[in-house]
Amino acid sequence: MLTLWYALWPLFALILAGQLLRRTHFLNPDFWPGAERLNYFVLFPALLLNSLATAPLDNPQLPLLAAGVFLTLGLAWVGLLVARRKYWWPAQRFGVWVQGILRFNTYLGLAIVGSLYGPQGLALAAVILGLLVPSANLLSVWALTSDQGFNRKSLLALIKNPLILACVAGASINLSGLGLPWGADRLVSLLASASLPLGLLCVGAALQLKGKHLAGSALVWNSSLRLLLMPVIALAVSLALQLPPLERNLLVLFFSLPTAPTAYTLTHQLKGDSTLMANLIALQTLLAAMSLPLVLQLLG
């Protein structure tokens, strides 16, 4: 357990540092929107592209891993559709529930994978992201716009998503066998190395810690389902498919992460319940400091 804490505490320390830097106004408040934009549109896509461009796409376990990703995602999606039918959630709220349960904090996930599993884990994690990022974003956009149908604005939001574009580019480079020539690999690697620490600082800075708003039943239920039930479903699926230990651990890990900070931006853009989304991001990130070590310890 101590080994896990040694690997995880620096990551949560960066999140806390981001919150303290924002609260103490050590940096100009205008710094954070620019930093988030730089990371979302440049640095983090570079990390995904770099990881996918060198990922072992000839790994014989990849079809089973893909099946595990889509089966876990599908089971959660069916459960959400049943819940919406029962509670008659409008799209503004349904979209928040979907993002709270299906989306994940990729910055934190890759930082944990890098700390615990090294380059081999990062390469497989990039494959999982290549499957999960487009799928989770597609379902989130559909959920937020389901009252008016999947329209041109929804389609553009997906096509222009820098994470999806980076996944497509990285996989294409990998499959083509061209690689990143003339030092481009070094450039992309340098950009990628800046993404995770800056991303964790931005996650901390974006947290809105208002205690009285973090105890609502919707927040508690959604957080419990994401941080406790989803790892159980992912573990059951991975055992049923007989995934090897590394693939199993990564699958469970990514379904144990708190929801993505960028979920707030998407919710706000598509007229969802952005206040609920912001509170959900804050609560899940706080609770993950306790739930993630437990999940990883159970995985061994």
Automatic annotation (TrEMBL):
Subcellular location(s) per record: Cell membrane
Family matches, as Gene3D superfamilies: 1.20.1530.20
Transmembrane segments: 6-26, 63-82, 94-117, 123-143, 155-175, 187-207, 219-243, 278-299
One Pfam family this sequence matches: Mem_trans
GO cellular component: plasma membrane
Membrane topology of the entry: Multi-pass membrane protein
Principal subcellular localization: membrane
Keyword vocabulary terms for this entry: Cell membrane, Membrane, Transmembrane, Transmembrane helix, Transport
Record bears the keyword Signal: no
BP terms from Gene Ontology: transmembrane transport
PANTHER family recorded: AUXIN EFFLUX CARRIER FAMILY PROTEIN (PTHR36838)
Family in the record: Belongs to the auxin efflux carrier (TC 2.A.69) family.
Protein's recorded name: Permease
Species this chain originates from: Azomonas agilis
